[in-house]
Amino acid sequence: MTLTRRTALSLGASLPFAAALPQAAAAKAEMKGMDIAKSRRVELGEFEVTTLLAGTAARDEPQSIFGMNVSPEEFAKVSEDAFLPTDKVQFFFTPTLINTGSEVILFDTGLNADGITAAVEAAGYTTDQVDKVVITHMHGDHIGGLMGDAGETFKNASYIAGSVEHNHWAKADNDGFKSKVAPLSEKMTMIEDGATVASGITSVSAAGHTPGHMGYMIESNGAQLMLIADLANHPVWSLAKPDWEVRFDMDKAQAAKSRRKVLGMLAADRVPMVGYHMPFPAMGYVAAKDDGFEYVPMSYQMML
Ligand SMILES: [Zn+2]
């Protein structure tokens, strides 16, 4: 039955309590605006893994960022098929905090010190509890929270970064590196592909987005999860279309190659992932589909 105004009225009239329904004007509460959870915690073996929403913002003209090498018609078709608007995109910035039981390790630090401090505290931790800060790559939205007006954000932490990445930005004339990373370089351990940063946590080289971009494989008691960082930055425009060019990928061909390789591995092994720019809580699975992949957001799998 189609519920027209007439049938709705007649249905209401037939209900004995219809007269007792409150008037719209009686229900007064202030409008609070959009809300979104700021953290999500799951267990992975003996570890606790918490994703932290350190920031989110809308941007215009998404095709100036994703799918730069396809026609506006193709971009529109793929977007509309996935129920996505083509004139706006919502960005998310999601560092991950892992408590291994013996150490608290933070992966990336968001855009600024205030944002990451608020996100860490909202999840029930303090910045002083962070033992290690791991930087996946040195774009501003990942290193921004390392230093603030008050100096070092994570006063008790040591730092870990890829040597290729560090060397690249140290040679470039980059303000972000100079203000956020250079003051901490003395305390920073440089690592290569396949390095163990803590028991069960291993670096996985995935270059292209930046020269030394790295993801991390997390494993505890046989359970696995991969932090893919900026390997793929949109659930449709990067996962379904791994060859679509992304403005922020410094080597676009290499980035696409890394996407296919790592996403293919996650799909084959059915390993869940956290993507730094995926819609919050940024956790999901990857399935092979057509000539690309399908992103399957996590629902309750990791609560069991
Ligand atoms: Zn990023």
From TrEMBL:
The keyword Metal-binding applies. The keyword Metal-binding applies. Residues 1-19 form the signal peptide. Keywords: Hydrolase, Metal-binding, Signal, Zinc. Residues 92-277 form the Metallo-beta-lactamase domain. GO terms for molecular function: hydrolase activity; metal ion binding. Pfam families: Lactamase_B. CDD domains: OPHC2-like_MBL-fold (cd07720). InterPro entries: MBL_superfamily_lactonases, Metallo-B-lactamas, RibonucZ/Hydroxyglut_hydro, TAT_signal. Belongs to the metallo-beta-lactamase superfamily. This is Glyoxylase, beta-lactamase superfamily II. It comes from Litoreibacter albidus. The lineage of its organism: Bacteria, Pseudomonadati, Pseudomonadota, Alphaproteobacteria, Rhodobacterales.
